Every structure is written in C-alpha cells, then in structure tokens.
C-alpha cells in the first residue's frame, strides 16, 4: 500500500470515530473540541461484528403497503433510484417527495398527525432531540443490532437519544475549503491570506471567497474558532450559552471584516449562486461540503479541497454532523418503512451515495472501500473533520438556528455591532428555551 493511500485510509478511520466525542463546549484552551474523544479501540475498516448478525427472519412488510419518503431537491433523483431498487426487491411502491432535509422534522410535527406526512424521513442528527420530544419517530428496534455493528460508533451515538436508537445512519459530514486550481494553485492557510488575494482577484464580477454567509451551520466557524460555543456541559446544558462570550465576539468581528471582499447581501450568496460562479471560473474559493463534489467532477472543474482557513492562527472549528433515516410514528406501514430505512442505509447504498452525491459513508466497510479511499479529494474533508464540532442534539438546538442567523444577518447586512447582535441572539434563545420548558 502506498503512502498516500495509507494516509487516506487512516483519515477515514479517524473520521468515522471522531464524532464519538459529541459534546463539550469549545474551550479556547483546547486544540479542538474532539480532543477529549475516547481512545479508538477498533479500526473503522474492520468488518461488521460477527456477534451481532442480522435478524434470523426477515421482517415481513404489511400487505398492500406503500411508502412516502421525503428528500431534498438536489438529492431527489438519486433517492428515486434507491426507491425503484427497493420496489423491485420488495414489491412495495415508494413515492419520493421534495422536502429539504433540515426542514423535515418540523414538517412531520405538523403533517404526521394529519396523516399526510412521510413514512420515512431523512435529517441531520441535531434534530433528533426535538423529534423524540415530539413523539414523531419509531425506534430502530428490529435492525438495531445490525445497524450498530455495521456503522461507526459515532454515527450510531448521534442517532441515539437517552439510550434509545432511532435512526439508520447514512453519512457523516462537515465542510471545508474548495479551491479552483486554475485560479489559485494552492489553498490559502488563513483568512488574512484570502483578504490579500482578493485585493488583486476581485474584479469584473469575480470573487475570491464565498459561502452561504449567514447560514449558521457555515458561519459557526467564525464564532467557535476563537472560543465561542453553543451549549456547555457536553452540549447538554441549554442554560449555558457561549455564543456571545469574548471569543465569539472576536470571531464575529472577523466575519464582519470579510464583507470587504464579498460586498453582497447575505441572502444573495446561495448554494446555486456559488455553484454557478465556481463552475464558470468567477469564484476562486468556496466553503462547501462533500455533497458538492460529484457535480464539480461532472463539470470538469480542476479543484482541490483543503481545511478551512485559520483565524488568528487557530485551527478552524466547523460544525459536523451525521445524517440518516428514521421512521415516522404516524406511518400505517411500520414494517415496510423499517425495511426501506435499512435498505437505503446499507453498505451498498452508502457507496452509491458516495459515488453519485459525494456523501461520506458512516458504514465502516463502505468508508474503507477503495472507491472512497482512492479519492484524494476526501483528504481535505477529513482533515477538516478532525477539528470539527458535532452539532448539539438537544431539543433546544432548534431555537439556535433562527436567532443565530438573524444576528449574523444584522452584523453583515446592517453593520450592527457584533456584541450587541450576539447578546440579542442569546437573549432570544434563552426566551425560546424558557417558553418550551
């Protein structure tokens, strides 16, 4: 095995386990939030444990079953392919409806009781606590052993709430720095370098750097890297909010400074706008995730992926997460829905997601497959993943996204004082938390 391939496989092994460090606030004295992760005792490339085989008898679907699955617009076509394969094997019709993954839990809360919700949903793990509190998901009971045996410990923990497994993990992810090698041969190491690069590159509709500016998922890096955090006590204490501490305010000032090189309204920096600029050579650097890799390859772009730029010399702390399937508690066909969730989250399906969409597998064997480890683009994502921070999964996390985005929009679009904007965001989060207790 050559040195580069060994490096990639080592990084893959690290990635599928590092989320086991879920929790713990971002202490400015620590090198990264994952520093307190328990020691890895098993290789991610190890095959599924022989002590936890699949159930002896296959789960029988209900007679006349049919299913509705929700999926985001950009991934719908792929999911329709998975659905057709499932139908061919089980003779169960599946309809894929377009609902963005981050919106699915909120929609199911309303649509489920009305009998118009999906049977199977796909969502990031930070929504799990809210979903469980609302009573809208069924446990992953029948396939619990095989799910636990085949997927990384971290991804299983991400979809476990109060010792109960609800999800069927599909992928692990964070975001990193994509760079067009024809425009900038080497990835900048710091935001200060990017600012200098922009002085000569920004002209005639060209931009040095872009990201979804006030999307809190991407913008969290600016608050967290200098020492901000969402919730304390292992991301479980909603009363300890660190989004307006000294470190967060320092990072928000850097965030505000970047408007000098990206002079546009926050709402204009959408995923599609970034993609269009990057693929036409008008954007040199894009903060994006593994889901963008497949389309850029198809477009023939000469690009690389590197860790996010440092802030004041500190390694950048991005949000990371796990996405997976879960079965609605309102489904009329729970057995069929569980069968689909299992079918859509196997090693084979996860390799399909990687090949077609660029999703990084949570399945141990899929993560160690040569299809994944032979791709040098994976290294940049995995390097960033080492410094990532798992999104909190307690129900109160649902109160953070809107308040955080509003504060960042005020800072960016309205030039509001960062401390004032973040103080207001924390006040809103605490008020929302109190209202739900």
Automatic annotation (TrEMBL):
Membrane topology value: Lipid-anchor
Coiled-coil regions listed in the entry: none
GO annotations of cellular component type: ATP-binding cassette (ABC) transporter complex, substrate-binding subunit-containing
Signal peptide: 1-20
PROSITE patterns per UniProt: PROKAR_LIPOPROTEIN (PS51257)
Localization per record: Cell membrane
Keywords: Cell membrane, Lipoprotein, Membrane, Signal, Sugar transport, Transport
GO MF assignments: carbohydrate transmembrane transporter activity; maltose binding
A Pfam match: SBP_bac_8
Low complexity composition bias: residue spans: 30-52
Superkingdom of this protein's organism: Bacteria
One example of a Gene Ontology biological process annotation: maltose transport
Keyword NAD (UniProt): no
Region of interest: Disordered: 28-63
Family membership noted in the UniProt record: Belongs to the bacterial solute-binding protein 1 family.
Protein name in UniProt: Maltodextrin-binding protein
Native source organism of the sequence: Cohnella luojiensis
């Amino acid at each position: 095995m050559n040195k580069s391939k060994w490096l990639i496989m080592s990084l893959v092994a690290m990635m599928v386990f590092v989320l086991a460090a879920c929790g713990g606030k971002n202490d400015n004295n620590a090198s990264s939030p994952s520093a307190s992760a328990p020691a890895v005792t098993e290789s991610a490339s190890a095959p599924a444990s022989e002590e936890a085989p699949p159930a002896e008898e296959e789960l029988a679907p209900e007679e006349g079953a049919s299913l509705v699955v929700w999926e985001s617009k950009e991934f719908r076509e792929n999911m329709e392919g998975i659905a057709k394969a499932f139908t061919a094997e089980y003779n169960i019709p599946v309809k894929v409806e377009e609902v963005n993954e981050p919106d699915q839990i909120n929609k199911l809360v309303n649509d489920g009781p009305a009998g118009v919700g999906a049977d199977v949903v796909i969502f990031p793990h930070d929504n799990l606590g809210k979903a469980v509190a609302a009573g809208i998901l069924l446990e992953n009971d029948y396939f619990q052993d095989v799910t636990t045996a085949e997927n990384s410990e971290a991804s299983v923990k991400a979809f476990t709430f109060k010792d109960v497994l609800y999800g069927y993990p599909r992928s692990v992810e964070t975001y990193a720095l994509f760079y067009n090698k024809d425009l900038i041969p080497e990835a900048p190491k710091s935001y200060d370098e990017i600012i200098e690069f922009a002085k000569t590159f920004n002209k005639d509709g060209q931009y040095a750097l872009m990201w979804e500016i006030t999307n809190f998922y991407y913008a969290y890096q600016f608050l967290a890297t200098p020492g901000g955090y969402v919730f304390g006590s292992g991301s479980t204490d909603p009363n300890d909010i660190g989004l307006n501490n000294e470190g967060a305010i320092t990072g928000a000032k850097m965030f505000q400074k970047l408007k000098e090189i990206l002079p546009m309204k926050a709402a204009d920096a959408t995923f599609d706008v970034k993609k269009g600029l990057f693929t036409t050579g008008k954007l040199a650097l894009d903060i994006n995730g593994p889901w963008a890799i497949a389309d850029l390859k198809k477009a023939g772009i000469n690009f690389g992926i590197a860790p996010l730029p440092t802030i004041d010399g500190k390694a950048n702390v991005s949000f990371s997460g796990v996405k997976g399937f879960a079965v609605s508690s309102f489904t009329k066909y729970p057995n069929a829905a569980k069968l689909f969730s299992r079918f859509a989250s196997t090693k084979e399906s996860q390799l399909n997601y990687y090949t077609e969409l660029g999703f990084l597998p949570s399945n141990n064997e899929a993560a160690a497959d040569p299809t994944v480890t032979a791709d040098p683009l994976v290294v940049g994502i995995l390097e960033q993943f080492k410094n990532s921070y798992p999104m909190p999964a307690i129900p109160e996390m649902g109160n953070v996204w809107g308040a955080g985005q509003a504060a960042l929009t005020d800072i960016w679009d309205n030039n509001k004082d960062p401390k004032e904007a973040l103080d207001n965001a924390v006040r809103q989060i605490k008020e929302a938390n109190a209202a739900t207790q």
